[in-house]
């Protein structure tokens, strides 16, 4: 079982199917008003980089990077199909996206998650993400927990 990771356009049907599964999962964990989705009709989507992971031609994981500023990007829409969890897929996808952020010249990756996602929080902390104050659209959301990782030798600015 070999994982293959690819960047895909924002119109990719496998990407949309995985994001629909992610949204369903989040709806089970959070109140609707605490879920931050991606509006695929918004102009900012064209600045995002989306990735999908495949095992035996089956789409099993997705994630994205959304530029925040010159030096930082945000990890978005990160998801592994529950049937494929605990196989190292999330760690490999995270490393793949971190590598892309470095290629883009970014120095920090930020993200938002919440206490109802303990497996995600454990993954991010395991890979060197540290808690930071809520940022951007998450500032007023009490359930949001935000994290940051310095990449490429950068020091945290938050």
Automatic annotation (TrEMBL):
Among Pfam families, the record links this protein to:
Acetyltransf_1
Originating organism: Paenibacillus whitsoniae
Q: N-acetyltransferase domain location, by residue?
A: 5-152
Which PANTHER family does the record cross-reference, listed alphabetically?
A: AMINOALKYLPHOSPHONATE N-ACETYLTRANSFERASE-RELATED, AMINOALKYLPHOSPHONATE N-ACETYLTRANSFERASE-RELATED-RELATED
Instruction: Give yes or no: UniProt keyword Transferase.
Output: yes
Record-linked InterPro entries: Acyl_CoA_acyltransferase, Bact_Acetyltransf, GNAT_dom
What keywords appear on the UniProt entry?
A: Acyltransferase, Transferase
Q: Which GO terms describe its molecular function?
A: acyltransferase activity, transferring groups other than amino-acyl groups
**Does the UniProt entry include the keyword Transferase?**
yes
Superkingdom, natural source: Bacteria
User: Can you name this protein?
Assistant: GNAT family N-acetyltransferase
């Amino acid at each position: 079982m070999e994982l293959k990771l690819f960047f895909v356009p924002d119109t990719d049907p496998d990407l949309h199917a995985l994001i629909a599964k992610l949204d369903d999962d989040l709806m089970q964990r959070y109140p609707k008003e605490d879920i931050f989705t991606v509006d695929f009709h918004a102009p900012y989507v064209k600045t995002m980089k989306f990735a999908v992971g495949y095992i035996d031609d089956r789409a099993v994981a997705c994630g994205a990077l959304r530029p925040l500023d010159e030096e930082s990007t945000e990890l978005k829409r990160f998801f592994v199909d529950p049937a494929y969890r605990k196989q190292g897929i999330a760690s490999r996808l995270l490393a793949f996206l971190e590598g892309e952020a470095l290629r883009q010249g970014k120095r920090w990756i930020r993200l938002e998650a919440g206490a109802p996602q303990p497996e995600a929080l454990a993954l991010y902390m395991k890979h060197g993400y540290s808690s930071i104050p809520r940022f951007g659209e998450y500032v007023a959301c009490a359930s949001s927990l935000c994290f940051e990782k310095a990449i490429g030798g950068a020091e945290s600015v938050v």
